[in-house]
């Protein structure tokens, strides 16, 4: 469901004063790449909205929101305080995200932006009820780490993205998330996902033509000091 803003009757939460104050796993390399991809799309007037599945406390959402253009929609989908709906997912939530609350996300986001994104409070499988197919230019998936859920999220992203849209998959190589790795590389091997680049924590890909992104990104990396990179061929 698209839930209303959380009741603030419990009192306001402290708001961060700096981006670095927001808790979360969003490292410098990925901040640079998020900024590059979103700026690249903006400079070329690539149409479409923004989407995040799995928000935690809002660190990457805050970053994405800064690149939201007039007339665009930013949708964030997360369980927040809601039950997961299945036992394995519930166990994962309790283990990794026991302190996650919607109020904390909203307080963090509003410390940097005037308005909240459109929030879908529920499982990521519900996102297609709220976002139209073919309308998203940039999607960040960092929700469940369980294979069946990640596979479903990737298939949903394929339908939601525009022809030149970019999907970012978190934890594609983390040792505690083999399901994410399996779903990611399955999508590359059998479902048409084309790799654009990878970092230590995130995979960037598209179902469109990868070459314009690859060429422009390589040019940017080559001209930027202090960022190591190399080129490898993986499944075309």
UniProtKB/TrEMBL annotation:
Q: Which UniProt keywords apply?
A: Methyltransferase, Transferase
Q: Which GO terms describe its molecular function?
A: methyltransferase activity
Question: Gene3D superfamilies per the record?
Answer: Vaccinia Virus protein VP39
Gene Ontology BP terms: methylation
Protein name as it appears in the record: Class I SAM-dependent methyltransferase
Lineage of producing organism = Bacteria, Bacillati, Actinomycetota, Actinomycetes, Kitasatosporales
């Amino acid at each position: 469901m698209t839930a209303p803003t959380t009741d603030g009757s419990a009192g306001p939460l402290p708001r961060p004063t700096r981006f670095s104050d927001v808790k979360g796993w969003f490292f410098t390399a990925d901040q640079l790449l998020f900024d590059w991809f979103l700026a690249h799309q903006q400079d070329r007037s690539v149409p479409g909205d923004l989407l995040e599945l799995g928000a935690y406390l809002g660190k990457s959402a805050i970053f994405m929101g800064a690149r939201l253009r007039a007339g665009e929609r930013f949708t964030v989908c997360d369980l927040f305080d809601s039950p997961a709906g299945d036992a394995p997912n519930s166990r994962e939530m309790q283990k990794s995200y026991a302190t996650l609350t919607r109020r904390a996300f909203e307080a963090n986001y509003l410390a940097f932006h005037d308005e909240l994104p459109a929030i879908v409070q529920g499982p990521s499988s519900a996102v297609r009820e709220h976002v139209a197919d073919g309308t998203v230019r940039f999607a960040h998936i960092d929700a469940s780490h369980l294979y069946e859920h990640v596979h479903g999220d990737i298939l949903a992203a394929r339908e939601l993205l525009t022809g030149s849209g970019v999907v970012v998959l978190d934890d594609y190589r983390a040792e505690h998330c083999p399901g994410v790795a399996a779903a990611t590389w399955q999508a590359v091997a059998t479902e048409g996902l084309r790799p654009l680049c990878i970092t230590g924590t995130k995979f960037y890909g598209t179902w469109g033509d990868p070459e314009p992104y690859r060429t422009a990104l390589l040019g940017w990396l080559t001209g930027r000091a202090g960022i190591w990179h190399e080129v490898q061929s993986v499944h075309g």
